[in-house]
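Quick illustration for those who missed Monday's session on complexes.
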Amino acid sequence: MSEIVNKKIEVYVEAHSQAEPELLQKLNKETRENIHSPRMLSGHFQGRMLSMLSKLLQPKNILEIGTYTGYSALCMAEGLQSDGKLHTIDVDERLYDLQRRYFDLSEYGENIIQHIGDAKKVIPTIDATFDLVFIDADKRGYKKYVELVLPKMNAGGVILSDNVLWKGQVLENDPEKTDNRTKSLQEFNVFMNTHPQLESIVLPIRDGLTLSRVK
Ligand SMILES: C[S@@+](CC[C@H](N)C(=O)[O-])C[C@H]1O[C@@H](n2cnc3c(N)ncnc32)[C@H](O)[C@@H]1O
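Prediction with S-adenosylmethionine bound:
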């Protein structure tokens, strides 16, 4: 399966959207040079999209599931209210120091709270309600993450779920050709679009991003 968006269009879209801030360019470069699986990083276009959505929503509290090197957290922090908090969770403790270094280089260091551990265990321990949630961790956990965060969402809050088109593999109908991650995402996409508390729209950008508004 291929990328959803044509490479030339991607380049054009980036050239005609806001520039990637300098600190994020450095983090992007350091991630590509030194960290495993750099394709996981949201990158210029999706990062600007997260920043824009966050600035439109002006959240008091944000939750991110899947910090990686902190790129998307820094993008969403751009829209936080000045006394707001962004909680971000990752199971990989080796990434903690790099995340903190970049958070402290930004103007949002004091607003960002890192959590290390399995998000299924960490989410219930966070004492906050959220206006914006970004789900970007293990694909088989997505449905569970939504079930855990829904009671903590403020009315009108937004849940963003990444990689929901899984490079187009969600189109596969033959169960024998469908791996477990793809099956989970196929089920997740139905779950989000039929959930009585949510209004969802799947945006075919990058690897697919679902935007769900809590009623
Ligand atoms: C796609 S990356 C996140 C990318 C980041 N949001 C960005 O855009 O720059 C996924 C991250 O989820 C983390 N992860 C995987 N399973 C997890 C779990 N059960 N709980 C918390 N984090 C998890 C991985 O360690 C990895 O760093």
